Amino acid sequence: xxxxxGYPLPVVLGQLVLGFVNGSFYALLSLGLAVIFGLxxxxxxxxxxFYMLGGFAAHLLLIWFGINYWGALILSPLIVGALxxxxxxALLRHLYKLDPLYGLLLTFGLAMMIxxxxxxxxxxxxxxxxxxxxxxxxxxxxxxxxxxxxxxVILASLTVCFLAWVLIEKTKLGATLRAATENASxxxxxxxxxxxxxxxxxxxxxxxxxxxxxxxxxxxxVSPHMGTSLVVVVFAVVVIGGMGSIFGSIISGLxxxxxxxxxxxxxxxxSTTVIFVIMAIVLLIxxxxxxxxx
Amino acid sequence: MRLSSSRIVxxxxxxxxxxxxxxxxxxxxxxxxxxxxxxAAAFNLLLGFSxxxxxxxxxxxGIAAYITAWLRVKTGLPxxxxxxxxxxxxxxxxxVIGTLAIRRQGIYFAMITLALAQCMYFFCxxxxxxxxxxxxxxxxRGSILGxxxxxxxxxxxxxxxxxxxxxxxxxxxxxxxxxxQVLRAIGENEPRAIxxxxxxxxxxxxxxxxxxxxAGLGGSLKALVLGLATLSDVHQSTSGEVILMTLLxxxxxxxxxxxxxxxxxxxxEYLSDRVGAWVTVVIGAVFVACVxxxxxxxxxxxxxxxxxxxxxxxx
Lengths: 294, 315
Hints:
Chain A has helices at residues 9-40, 47-65, 69-90, 101-122, 148-170, 172-182, 184-189, 194-220, 230-241, 246-266, 274-285, and strands spanning 3-4, 7-8, 138-140, 145-147. By secondary structure, chain A is mainly alpha-helical. In chain B, helix 2 runs antiparallel to helix 9 (200-226), helix 4 runs antiparallel to helix 9 (200-226) and helix 6 packs across helix 7 (178-188).
């Protein structure tokens, strides 16, 4: 059997592919976090809670209204995004003149409220969400058996990340968004309604988290705390990538998924902490993050 | 000698604390409150007086609780030494994490401390000595100086009270010392402190280590009081709780963290019997309300009112 540094090749490749799946979740989540931070200067601690709400929305749409996975993929981000709009209008907008730390604290409290509420309503055990019929089955890749659903997750996340990147970097809307990020009051002076833009940006960032939640539902089960520790990992990803960079957050999300997968082969005990260790190393060498500018 | 009004409040509170065992208040409850008060006061040393928001203070609280508990259960080391070992571990963890985290400021500092504290959580989750999901239970309190047994809740209470008062006085001393003044200067305007020639990073690391050490002291005592060290001590929710306690009581005030700890611990004990899982929702709502409308905190708000009144009556 072929080996790499003494580890069987199929095992290494298998873990790399699974790492790729995790990495695409990190990419989706850190993308939303970076977009929100860019414009609002709010580190959205509730990102994990909105991710969880996305998964729950898919589950509830299915059992209450019989709406299937494909419907949930569209509806769930819309519902959660709308909730995000309400949160921004009702709570976050009062904090923009203050230290950004207050945004972090407020969204932390918000995450507690959301997660506590969901636990109260639905208990804390995981709920299985069925894999959609069209995506059941496996690809036989020779070195591993890849569930079609996981391949779909990679494809879907990468497509969404790419579209978001094109939207922000290549379109007129994106140019306005970047201008508002750079200098909000000047952009407003050009007749652009920045407050509405801020609200919609928060809604969109949160909707991305919800989309990740729907994609994750058939893999990880839906539970009130599915996002609690994930959000901390995504924070580390964002620190590694450099907070301001959209591109950086996508790339480092994918990269760290791979690294995590490799660690599972080489030293499984460290697979939960390896991202934090990398963060520490990056901080020592390049405090602004790999793709950061300031 | 004329006593200042804040000194009168301190003396009244101390007198009340001394009477607790006589008043029929459950001492374990007050001890728990004092342990979290020490924890919050340690956190406040960093946030309130140096302007650094650490989002991972549960790491120091929790690891000290584990080390003290483990040493008491497995080796029967004298109580003082077990506390000392726990506190020393926290100090070391604070040195390592603080050195890394101060490389960034503000929001990044918060995220880095959170991420590294998560590292500590996973370490405690996977290490064998922590007893996994069960934690370390039935920790014997032992005795102080070899002859003052701490089995009785009343003796233990006075021991914890003495430590809490010492921590309170110590923090006051630190803040009013030249070192503390430099810390405040850094918190108010870091570039100015740098241009005045202070090696800001060394001050910050030292403040971080002091804070994590005292947080560890709170954790070690908690392990002895409740006889228990668990994963929830190192969890991010505990890091959040200590922020809430400080914010609610009054950031940058001396009594605030203790008042905040009192409110939060009371709320948790009171609500968990009555509303179950809703307690998280309530605590989260208090958090949101504090950030939105009550940023000075209870003690900060009272101090502001009082100052305004004395200003108007003396003019």
